[in-house]
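Incident log, support desk, overnight shift.

02:14 A customer reports that sequence design results differ from what the structure should imply. Their input is reproduced verbatim below. On-call engineer (initials T.W.) acknowledged and began investigating.
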């Protein structure tokens, strides 16, 4: 997270007289443009939110911008708001303020009463003001704030209960100011960008394809350092003749460079999408969904097959119980994982190659193809309804509706009737299988086995296990987390554990951890901790090639009420205090597991994550089954008695 203060900005501002709020904006001095048609205007919607109040991140990016000396034909128009407190003496948190930064420096040109930056009318008013007062040959609109993906949108206003701009609100605001156009090259804006989390989605792209030629956004959460404003604005100042593609490429490259400088690049994503080439992708995405829906209508076991493909696909923002569910998955990776199931997946990949022009990916985001799409990882119908209101693909809306509810509305049945589907078979799920509490066997080598039979292939999306520490004398169980170190025979429905008596640990301190992504080259885990007494999720990776663990940083996860993803990857620093967290319940009762603070440790320069032998004691392993509707079932348990590094395995009684 950036810690810059406003010193540079203040030095420049104090040297300039601020324009009186009653002055007429857009005077010739503020609007000087070159005669060669290369003038640029960037309309920056700077919703500070808690990122500014708590960390001064917006102030830091303003300071970066003001490192750049702009030419006469480049103007940045800024609206500030949405934060309870600004970490400088210029921006007033009680108002909406409009600044212009140009060749003459920073000037306050307008003020408005406080209003939610998450309201469509607030956005429209700013865009109209900027367009009327500061037109240019090429125009970009940049959003700055948190993001929440296709369902939750962006620009969460701290002053108004974290109200955010949903995609339909963004479209409404833009359509008040500009005439939408699908004609190639006739879009009114050169570029729309999101310096936020999770907004490089096919639904966001569809929202803006009538307004802008290019989209720059991130599939994954962004770290607090965000875009490097001195980098891309500096490049624009040097070459105002560049178009949106060139500018978008520079934004991607300088963002990655800034992340490298901050040490936050491992999970970085940023992509440049040519929105004039989006229609073939939308058509391919719809055909992909229609084929999936047709296959599921013939045999609902397909829900489990596609679910397994989605569980192996790169997904963003967490999608675990501890981190919350964004339900965003990389569109290209899911298509690649589905090519054996759905021939139409290849057309999606081909169309992505045509419209995603450029992208940067960190080493633990190698599967990112530039745009994500919705997949219901948690099976939540309310979240699905939010997607139905905002999403671009009609077929997938009906696909998930059928999957989660077992049927379709009259409108949905009319839709599938056009696909020659007259009736929908019953959807079987995990709740009807009777597998909850199923017994396990243990062989002479101590390997625990669960046998479900071939039916498992048509019901389950994934299998993992949960590990617990058991102290019967103290009437205590501690839940240590989940992993997937197992062997699966899906054809026969037989599953074997590979447990080795070790677990994840920070400097040898055993932790609770959840598997958040299982890939061919690496796994990602989320470890809930208290970091200096604040709740965080430590992001941890295991690289199969290097056989090494690494700590990527700590993030706060998804806000359960607003859907807002934290735009802050906090790197550990020497002297930080970590409190490990387990989940505790009684051994004899039916009470739910609750968070339990375990051990405290102090971060040093050599702090690391790795595997540690489990301390002496008794442990229970439970196989966890999940279906495509988000239902879970749990096997009976086996116990592991650990003593001096030796393990004895028995069936739990």
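02:41 Re-run completed on a clean worker. Output:
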């Amino acid at each position: 997270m950036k810690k810059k203060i406003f010193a540079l900005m203040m030095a420049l501002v104090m040297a300039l007289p601020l324009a009186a709020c009653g002055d007429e904006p857009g005077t010739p001095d503020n609007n000087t443009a070159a005669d060669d048609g290369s003038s640029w205007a960037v309309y920056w919607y700077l919703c500070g939110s808690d990122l500014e109040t708590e960390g001064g991140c917006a102030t830091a990016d303003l300071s970066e911008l003001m490192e750049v000396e702009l030419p006469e034909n480049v103007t940045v128009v800024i609206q500030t708001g949405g934060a309870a407190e600004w970490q400088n003496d210029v921006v007033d948190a009680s108002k909406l303020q409009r600044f212009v930064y140009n060749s003459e420096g920073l000037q306050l040109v307008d003020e408005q009463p406080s209003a939610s930056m998450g309201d469509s009318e607030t956005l429209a008013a700013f865009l109209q003001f900027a367009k009327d007062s500061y037109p240019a040959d090429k125009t970009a609109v940049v959003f700055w704030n948190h993001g929440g993906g296709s369902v939750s949108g962006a620009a969460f206003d701290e002053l108004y209960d974290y109200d955010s701009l949903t995609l339909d609100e963004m479209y409404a605001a833009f359509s008040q100011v500009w005439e939408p156009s699908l004609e190639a090259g006739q879009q009114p804006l050169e570029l729309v960008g999101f310096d936020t989390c999770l907004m490089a989605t096919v639904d966001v792209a569809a929202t803006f394809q009538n307004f802008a030629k290019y989209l720059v956004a991130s599939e994954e959460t962004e770290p607090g350092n965000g875009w490097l404003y001195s980098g891309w604005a500096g490049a624009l100042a040097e070459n105002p003749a560049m178009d949106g593609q060139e500018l978008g490429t520079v934004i991607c490259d300088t963002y990655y460079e800034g992340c490298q400088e901050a040490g936050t690049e491992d999970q970085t994503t940023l992509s440049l999408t040519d929105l004039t080439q989006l229609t073939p992708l939308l058509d391919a995405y719809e055909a992909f969904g229609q084929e999936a829906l047709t296959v599921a209508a013939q045999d609902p076991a397909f829900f489990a097959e596609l679910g397994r493909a989605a569980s192996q696909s790169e997904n963003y923002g967490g999608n675990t119980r501890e981190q919350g569910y964004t339900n965003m998955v990389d569109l290209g990776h899911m298509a690649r994982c589905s090519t054996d199931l759905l021939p139409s997946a290849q057309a999606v990949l081909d169309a992505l190659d045509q419209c995603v022009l450029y992208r940067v990916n960190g080493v633990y985001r190698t599967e990112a193809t530039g745009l994500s799409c919705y997949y219901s990882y948690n099976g939540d119908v309310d979240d699905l309804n939010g997607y139905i209101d905002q999403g671009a693909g009609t077929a997938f809306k009906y696909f998930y509706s059928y999957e989660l509810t077992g049927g379709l509305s009259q409108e949905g049945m009319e839709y599938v009737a056009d696909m020659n589907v007259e009736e929908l078979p019953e959807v079987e799920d995990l709740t009807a299988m009777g597998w909850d509490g199923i017994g396990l066997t243990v062989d002479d080598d101590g390997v625990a086995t669960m046998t479900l039979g071939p039916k498992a292939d048509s019901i389950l999306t994934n299998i993992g296990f949960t590990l617990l520490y058991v102290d019967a004398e103290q009437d205590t169980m501690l839940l240590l987390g989940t992993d997937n170190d197992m062997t699966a025979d899906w054809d026969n429905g037989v599953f074997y554990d590979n447990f080795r008596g070790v677990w994840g640990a920070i400097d040898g301190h055993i932790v609770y951890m959840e598997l958040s992504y299982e890939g061919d080259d690496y796994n990602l885990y989320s470890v809930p901790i208290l970091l200096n007494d604040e709740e965080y999720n430590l992001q941890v990776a295991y690289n199969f090639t290097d056989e090494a663990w690494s700590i990527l940083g700590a993030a706060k996860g998804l806000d359960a009420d607003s859907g807002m993803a934290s735009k802050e990857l906090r790197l550990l620093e020497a002297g930080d205090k970590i409190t490990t967290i387990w989940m505790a319940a009684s051994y004899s009762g039916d009470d739910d597991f609750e968070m339990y603070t375990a051990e405290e440790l102090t971060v040093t320069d050599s702090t690391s994550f790795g595997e540690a032998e489990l301390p002496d004691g008794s442990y229970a392993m439970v196989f966890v089954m999940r279906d495509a509707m988000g239902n879970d079932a749990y096997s009976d348990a086996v116990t592991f008695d650990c003593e001096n590094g030796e393990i004895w395995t028995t069936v739990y009684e």
